[in-house]
Amino acid sequence: MKLTELFRKGVFVFTGEVGPVKGCCRTNGGPPPDFVREAVAIKDYVHAVNVADNQSALMRLGSLAASVLLKQAGVEPIFQLTCRDRNRIALQSDLMSACTLGIDNVLCLTGDHIRLGDHTSAKPVFDVDSVQLLKIARGLNEGRDMMGNPLTQPTDLALGAVVNPGFEPLDLQLLKMEKKVEQGAQFFQTQAVFDPVIFESFIKKAERFGVPVMYGLLIVKSPEMARYINENISGITVPRWLTRELEAVPPEGRKEKALEITLRLTKEMAPMVQGIHFMPLGWSDLIPPVVTELRKAGLA
Amino acid sequence: MIGTTKKPLEEVLAALAPHRKVALVGCDGCAKICQTGGVDEVAQLAQTLEAHGKEIVFQATPERTCNVAKSDPVLQPLKEKIEEADALLVLGCGGAVQITRHLTETYGLTKPVKVGLNSVGHLDTLVPGAVATEECSDCGDCLLNDTGGICPVTRCAKSLLNGPCGGAEAGKCEVDHSRDCAWILIYERLKALGETDKLKRFMEPKDYSRMAKPRTLYIKEGRVA
Question: Which of A106, A225, B19, B108 could pair covalently with B86 via S-S, beta carbons 3.0-4.6 A apart?
Answer without folding.
Answer: B19
